[in-house]
Amino acid sequence: MPAEDLDEESSVWLRRLGAGGGERQAAERELHARLVRIALAEVRRRSASTPVAGPELDDVAHQAADDAMLAILAKLGDFRGESRFITWVYRFVILEVSSKLGRHYWRNPPVWLDAAQWERLPDRLGIDPARHAEVAGILAEVRRAVDSELTMHQRRLFVAIVVDGIPLDALAAELGLRRNAIYKVIFDARRKIRRALVANGYLEEPGVER
Amino acid sequence: MRELGRLERFLRTDPRDVGCDEAIAVLHIYVDLVTAGEDAAGRYPGVAAHLLACGPCSEDFTGLVQAVTNG
Q1: What's the longest Cα–Cα distance across chain B?
Q2: What are the C-alpha distances in Å from A89 to residues A96, A198, B48?
Q3: How far apart, in Å, are the Cα atoms of A49 and each of A42, A53, A75, A165, B36?
Q4: Fewer Cβ close by (within 10 Å): the C or N end of chain A?
Q5: Please, which pLDDT band fits residue B34 given cuts at 50, 70 and 90?
Q6: H-helix or E-strand containing A141?
Q7: ipTM of the complex
Q8: Angle at CA A175, nearest 5°, toward A169 and A180?
Q9: Helix axes of A132-149 and A179-199: crossing angle, nearest 10 degrees
């Protein structure tokens, strides 16, 4: 995108980062400081949903900022001006935080990760404990569908994510898979289970499935 | 049954859902539209469908909105 089509702030960032010597170094220092600030805010925002805590959480933020900075500088030429430059930049550090929290999850995983947690499923679905008995039938059907309708790979990932509550990014890190690969497996599993529930009269409408 | 609402919503899949890779590839554009008050979901319905269904990508979206809003 021609520089004149960019907003003023984006143009200034690109000019400074494309300059030589002291101007570029100053821009890089300023950008890195911003990345650190954003990363620290992001890990704190996510602190309730990760077992990572304390100084390790700050370490994750600093590592995320450092790695985002390297990626941004390596990919500056890929910026096409489809968004503000700073939004494009912050996306790198947000994604680094996600990825690193996923990997750090396994350093101190919850102690209950020793067996499939089917009894916790109603809580995960937000079902009122007083109503668990009413939904026992459909949840048993969900479990039957998981056991009988899903492939072994689908069942393994569905149980890990939905039943055991392992964060998707943590599972991706553990299995060496991309987030999208796991999401697609769970997507197909959800569709299969829903079809089974509809076929057996537990749900009435086909929804928005293809 | 109201208690089944979350289960039903969780199992419902939207064929417009573009998946994580496509959503993340345009997340910065989508966030700029959202924060500018424009119709991001209308322009990227597949991304909007995905963000409704994918917890991790929704978290990234929320984090990026907060970053550009407060950063």
Answers
A1: 43
A2: 11, 45, 21
A3: 12, 10, 31, 11, 29
A4: C
A5: very high
A6: helix A132-149
A7: 0.94
A8: 50
A9: 110
Tokens 């912050």 appear where? Answer: A90
Which DSSP category does A46 fall into? T
pLDDT at A2: 55
- Which residue type occupies A87? T
Cβ of A87 and B66 within 8 Å?
no
**Token pair recorded at residue A76:** 């500056």
Residue B64, amino acid: L
Which among B14, B29, B62 has the least Cβ separation from residue A83? B29
Average pLDDT over residues A62-79: 97
Chain A with chain B: Cβ pairs closer than 8 A: 126
In B, minimum Cα distance to A133 occurs at: B3
Local structure of A128: helix, strand or coil: coil
Q: Give the largest CA-CA distance in chain A.
A: 70
Phi, psi of A135 (to 5 degrees): -100, 5
Contact status, residue A207 vs residue B17, Cβ threshold 8 Å:
no
The two structure tokens encoding residue A104: 């750090």
Q: What tens digit of pLDDT does each residue of A166-185 get? A: 999 999 999 999 999 999 99
User: Looking at CA atoms only, how far is residue B11 from chain A in angstroms?
Assistant: 5
Q: What is the pTM of this model?
A: 0.90
pLDDT in tens, A14-63: 999 999 899 999 999 999 999 999 999 999 999 998 988 999 999 999 99
Q: Which two tokens stand for residue A128?
A: 């009122």
Report the SS3 class of residue A100: helix
CA atoms within 13 A on the CB side of A26: 9
Q: Which residues of B touch A203 (CB under 8 A)?
A: 8, 11
